[in-house]
């Protein structure tokens, strides 16, 4: 990647207070059945194809756009965003860092982005902080923020 391409890559930051413990939330980020339930934003659905919950391991997952959606905008196929995540850091119950690479031939979507999840206890719940770095230029930062916010809403429902 050239320096110019590196500079074009965006970052996003989302925060949500969820009335659940760090342990419960950490489990939701590191359990394949939980990920398939809450990680797909909005009306999307998800499927985890493989999972290895160790540093250096990771998972492959597909997010599917609903059939009712008229526009075809999947990164991998018409209605599918398939990606591979690799765990760089797993520090229970407070931090997860992973890289995400989309299964795509589109040069604007190629490359690793980094997702950092921090779980900070606050009162009777936990502040969930998700920072994405190095977002490929084919993904608009505002779309990434919206998708993350919608996923966090699903996470809240899942754990509460």
Question: Would you count the extended β strands for me?
Answer: 7
- Mean pLDDT over the full residue set: 92
Spans of at least 5 consecutive residues whose pLDDT stays below 50 are 1-6
Indicate the CATH topology. Alpha-D-Glucose-1,6-Bisphosphate, Chain A, domain 4
CATH architecture label: 2-Layer Sandwich
Strand order in space, largest sheet: 1-7-6-5-4-3-2
The biggest beta sheet is recorded as:
7 strands, antiparallel
What is the alpha-carbon Rg in Å? 15 Å
- Give the helix tally: 4
Descriptive account of the structure:
The chain has one domain: Alpha-D-Glucose-1,6-Bisphosphate, Chain A, domain 4. The protein contains four helices and seven strands. The chain is globular and about 45 Å long. The longest helix is centred in the C-terminal third of the chain and has 19 residues, at 141-159. The protein has helices at 3-8, 22-30, 32-38, 141-159; strands at 10-18, 45-52, 58-64, 80-91, 95-102, 112-122, 125-135. Strands 1-7-6-5-4-3-2 form a seven-stranded antiparallel β-sheet. The protein has 160 residues and is α+β, with helices and mostly antiparallel strands. Helix content is 26%, strand content 41%.
Give the SSE map.
Layout: H1 3-8, E1 10-18, H2 22-30, H3 32-38, E2 45-52, E3 58-64, E4 80-91, E5 95-102, E6 112-122, E7 125-135, H4 141-159
Antiparallel strand pairs: 1-7, 2-3, 3-4, 4-5, 5-6, 6-7
Helix pairs in contact: 2-3
InterPro entries: ASHA1/2-like_C, START-like_dom_sf
Protein name: Activator of Hsp90 ATPase homologue 1/2-like C-terminal domain-containing protein
Family: Belongs to the AHA1 family.
